[in-house]
Structures are given as structure tokens and as C-alpha cells.
Write a structure and sequence with these properties.
- The complex is a heterodimer of chains A (258) and B (220).
- In chain A, helix 4 runs parallel beside helix 6.
- Chain A is α/β, with parallel strands linked by helices.
- The longest helix of chain A is centred in the last third of the chain and has 18 residues.
- Chain A is built from nine helices and ten strands.
- Chain B has one domain.
- Chain B is 84% helix and 0% strand.
- Chain B contains ten helices and no strands.
- In chain B, 41% of the residues are buried.
- The N terminus of chain B is likely disordered.
- Classes of the chains: A alpha/beta (258), B mainly alpha (220).
- At the A-B interface, helix 2, helix 3 and helix 4 of A face helix 1, helix 2, helix 6 and helix 10 of B.
- Bound molecules: adenosine-5'-triphosphate and magnesium ion.
- The site of adenosine-5'-triphosphate (ATP) has 12 residues of chain A, from strand 1, strand 2 and helix 2.
Chain lengths: 258, 220
């Protein structure tokens, strides 16, 4: 299926359900006299409750796109809408609020705060959101239990394995019951088995809590659980596949891997 | 803090807050983990303030001695003469040492910011406002300033007292101008805290302006 056809399928009647929508997003990195167009006009929609994977080779612009969707960076051109609100119109407070309450981020490098325990890492966004300390602690313990770390709440990140740190990061991303969880190569620094566990965890959250998940990845295992895959190449979306259109290819991938 | 009750009321739906107690906890922890470096920064403040305090203490004790000292002491004092030249020289020296102090603090804080690039970015991704980041760094510096200044005040005062006692016998102790020295101590403490805050402002501002997207980038 071509890009145009898919775009038509997604079009106007479902527009109100789009939790994320981008229009003509470009991002140019200026490095001295050199300028590099990392995104060359991205149009995409994500509906509430979807699990989307953004696939593409290294340097294709996944992380850059990701920063745009996550309101972590401003597009050079074009617009990003979250819940149909133009992110560029938000002031500093609203932006912080969006990052704190609406979006949960998971990074390839975990990005836990090293001086804080697992529990403190998870409760920090709740504190920002104005939750009382004991409430935050209760909720933090619940979340860490949910990701299978109920026994390790007082450990510092360095006392945890990579997989465990990423679980803490998942729990932290869920701290304020975000509508969207953004994950940039969440399994990139994990071995296969641990990576799969994290992916399954994300899938469970997606199905159980109806969290919209958008994940950039190289990891073909991610395809398994995604509702839709956006293929990015050289700053453009080249393919937009639903999972049912993909099953055929998947058999091959599975065969290659096992 | 007040924010707790405010959010309970539900009136502040879009509010993002960092209670002071939590901010203090976080910055205290950041200092502890860089204990030796913090100690060096504290050392700089300590010596600067000790110098300032010793000069102030010396002036106060001198005054007390001129007023109520024994005849021999007064004779000694007159012999040395409280000449204006050395006083301006001292002011210069003190100012210079305090300046070095600020530069030291700024340098240490800048290092700390660079080191915590990713951590700051992460906090912003979690919803931290620019002012939280500023608050954390200024608090850190304030702690260092507080510890260094208190140490410096005590050290400067004791040092000057003992050194004057070696020249003038028991008089400096007997006539010790407690009130004035205490006041000097407060000034010095204030100076130390002020310098610590001034030294932290630029690094803290720089940290707060960091774009959160950078936290996502793997290579740093
Ligand atoms: N801050 C930046 N400054 C300059 N160039 C950048 C910056 N961030 C990304 N780029 C460039 O933009 C392009 C896209 O980078 P991006 O990080 O989005 O790729 P990616 O698809 O996430 O790759 P990977 O899979 O390796 O993480 C690359 O050519 C990269 O060099
Ligand atoms: Mg990337």
C-alpha cells in the first residue's frame, strides 16, 4: 500500500481521535556553515491506544522525529499537535506540564538519575506534578511492583542491571498516568531476552491501560507487538504498514532469528 | 510547603512544583556524591572568609585595646601605628581573595553542570521548569557557602585572637568585643553566602537553558 492510500484511510473522520499528529515537520540541524536536514517533511497520525513502531536505519531521523513528537525540540518547519493542540503555542509552564503529565519518556540509555534510588526516580515526576510525598511513595512502589521490581525499590541505578534499570525507567514513564509513552530504542542497550521482556511489558501496558505507545527501534521483535509500523528513511516516512499487512513478512523474520 | 495544600484543592490543575524540602534533599545528595570536589570548593570559601573575618576581628580588637587596654599595650599599639596605607592594602587583599573565591565557585559549578548534562536534560523531560534547575544549583552552592563561611568565620576569629594574644598578652581576650565580633561574623557569613550564590548564578542559568532533546542523544 502506498503512503497516499494510508493517509486517506486515516483521514478526516478519525481526526478527533488523533493523540499525535504532525504536519510537514522538518528539522534542520545547523552546524556552522553546514546544514543537515534530518527530517524532510513528516506527516503522521497516531490514534489513542495505538502501539506504533518507528523503524529505520541508523541516522534516518528516528530520534529527531521522536524529540518532535515528545515536545523536546522544536521543528524548523511544520507543526506537531498533541491532543489536537499545537505544541508550538504552549508556554514554558504548559510545556513542562505536557512533559510531566501527558507524556512518559523511555530512553535507550535509561537516563535514571544516579543519585536517586529506584523509588525516588519514579516518584520525581509525581513530586513535580504536585502529589503529596506519601501518595507518591505508595504509587511508586505499586509501579515498581508492576514492572517486577517490588523488592528493589531502594536500590540505586548503579546497583541494578541494565534490564532492571530500564524497568525503573518504564515505571517512571508511567508515574503520572501519561496518555502517551514515547520510547527511543528502549531495548537498544539490552540483550535479546531482557529486550523482549521490556517489549512485552510495554505491550501489556498498552493493552491493559490503553496507553498509546510510540517506539523508535531497530529491533525487529518490536514488530510483533506493534499495531502499525512507520518506516523512516533519510528523514521521510517511506512506508506505513498495519500489523495485518505485515504478518507475511514476519514469518520470515521469525525464521531468520530462531 | 504551601504547594501541597494548593494542589489538594484542585485549583491548580496545570501547576508544576518542586517543594523546597525536596529541592534541598536533591541538591544535598548531589553534593554528597561529589564529596571531595565539594570539599575543595568549600575550602576556597573557607579561606576567603577566614581572611575577611580575621581582618575584621583584628580591627575590632584593636579598637577595644585602644579604648581599654593596659598602658603597655597602648604604647605598643601607638608604636606600630594604625596607619591608613596598610588598611587600604588589606581591603585590596581581601577583595582579591573574595574574587578568587567567586571564580573558584563558578568554575566548580560549571564543571558540575557539564558533568550532569544528561541528568539535567532528563529532569526537564520529566517536567522540571527552568527555575527548578536554577534552584537546585543555587541551593548546592548555598550549602557550600554556608559550611565554608561558618568554618571561615570561626577560624578567622580564633586565628586573629590567638595571634593578637601572642603580641599583647591577655588583654585581647579580656577586652574581647563580643558584640562587634559577632556582628562581623554575621557580615562575613552573609558575604560568604552572597559570593556562593553569585558564583552559581551563571552556571545555574546555563544549566537551565539546556534543551531537553540533548538528554535523548546517546553520545555525550
Ligand atoms: N543535535 C544534532 N546536531 C547535529 N546533527 C544531528 C543532531 N541530532 C541528529 N543529527 C543528525 O540528524 C540525523 C538523524 O539523526 P537521528 O539521531 O534522528 O537518527 P536515528 O534514526 O535516531 O539514528 P539511530 O538509530 O542511530 O539512533 C543524523 O544524520 C544525525 O547526524
Ligand atoms: Mg536514535
Amino acid at each position: 500500500m502506498t503512503e497516499e492510500q494510508t493517509a486517506v484511510m486515516d483521514a478526516p473522520d478519525t481526526e478527533t481521535q488523533n493523540i499525535v499528529r504532525t504536519r510537514g515537520v522538518k528539522r534542520v540541524y545547523q552546524m556552522g556553515k553546514l546544514s543537515l536536514e534530518a527530517l524532510k517533511g513528516i506527516d503522521m497520525e497516531v490514534q489513542r491506544g495505538e502501539y506504533i513502531s518507528i523503524m529505520g536505519p541508523s541516522g534516518s531521523g528516528k530520534s529527531t522525529l521522536f524529540n518532535m513528537i515528545g515536545a523536546l525540540d522544536k521543528p524548523t518547519e511544520g507543526k506537531v499537535y498533541i491532543d489536537e493542540v499545537d505544541v508550538a503555542q504552549l508556554d514554558a509552564y504548559e510545556l513542562a506540564w505536557l512533559r510531566c503529565r501527558k507524556i512518559g519518556y523511555i530512553f535507550q540509555t535509561f537516563n535514571l538519575i544516579p543519585v536517586m534510588t529506584a523509588l525516588e526516580n519514579v516518584t520525581l515526576p509525581m513530586i513535580f506534578a504536585g502529589l503529596a510525598t506519601d501518595e507518591a511513595i505508595d504509587k511508586g512502589v505499586d509501579l515498581l511492583t508492576l514492572v517486577g521490581l517490588g523488592e528493589r525499590v531502594q536500590h540505586k541505578p548503579l546497583e541494578l542491571s541494565g534490564g532492571q534499570q530500564q524497568r525503573v525507567a518504564v515505571a517512571r514513564a508511567l508515574a503520572n498516568d501519561p496518555a502517551i509513552v514515547l520510547a527511543d530504542e528502549p531495548t537498544g542497550n539490552l540483550d535479546r531476552k531482557t529486550g523482549r521482556e521490556i517489549i512485552e511489558l510495554l505491550r501489556e501496558l498498552n493493552q491493559g491501560k490503553q496507553v498509546t505507545i510510540i517506539s523508535a527501534t531497530h529491533d525487529l521483535k518490536m514488530l510483533d507487538v506493534s499495531d502499525r509500523i512507520l518506516w523512516v528513511q533519510d528523514g521521510r516516512i517511506t512506508k506505513n504498514q498495519r500489523r495485518d499487512e505485515l504478518d507475511l513478512d514476519l514469518g520470515q523474520i521469525g525464521a531468520e532469528e530462531e | 510547603m504551601t504547594t501541597e495544600s494548593a494542589t489538594m484543592a484542585g485549583t491548580t490543575e496545570k501547576q508544576i512544583s518542586l517543594p523546597l524540602s525536596k529541592a534541598i534533599e536533591i541538591s544535598f545528595r548531589s553534593l554528597r556524591i561529589r564529596f571531595w570536589r565539594s570539599l575543595i570548593t568549600i575550602g576556597g570559601i573557607f579561606f576567603g572568609i577566614a581572611f575577611l573575618m580575621s581582618i575584621l576581628t583584628s580591627a575590632s580588637i584593636n579598637e577595644a585595646l585602644v579604648e581599654g587596654g593596659s598602658p603597655q599595650v597602648r604604647a605598643l599599639l601607638e608604636q606600630q601605628g594604625a596607619d591608613g596605607d596598610s588598611a587600604t592594602q588589606q581591603v585590596w587583599l581581601v577583595s582579591l581573595s573574595l574574587l578568587v573565591c567567586v571564580v573558584g565557585i563558578t568554575n566548580a559549578m560549571l564543571m558540575s553542570v557539564t558533568e550532569r548534562y544528561r541528568e539535567i536534560g532528563t529532569m526537564k523531560c520529566l517536567g522540571a521548569l527552568d527555575k527548578f534547575i536554577i534552584q537546585l544549583f543555587v541551593l548546592e552552592s548555598t550549602f557550600q557557602g554556608l559550611v565554608g563561611s561558618i568554618g571561615g568565620v570561626i577560624m578567622g576569629c580564633l586565628f586573629m585572637l590567638i595571634s593578637m594574644m601572642t603580641s599583647y598578652g591577655w588583654d585581647p581576650l579580656v577586652l574581647f568585643p563580643v558584640l562587634e565580633v559577632a556582628q562581623n561574623g554575621l557580615y562575613s557569613l552573609g558575604a560568604g553566602l552572597g559570593l556562593a550564590i553569585i558564583g552559581a548564578l551563571y552556571p545555574a542559568y546555563r544549566a537551565s537553558q539546556m534543551p531537553p532533546a540533548d538528554a535523548m542523544r546517546t553520545e555525550v
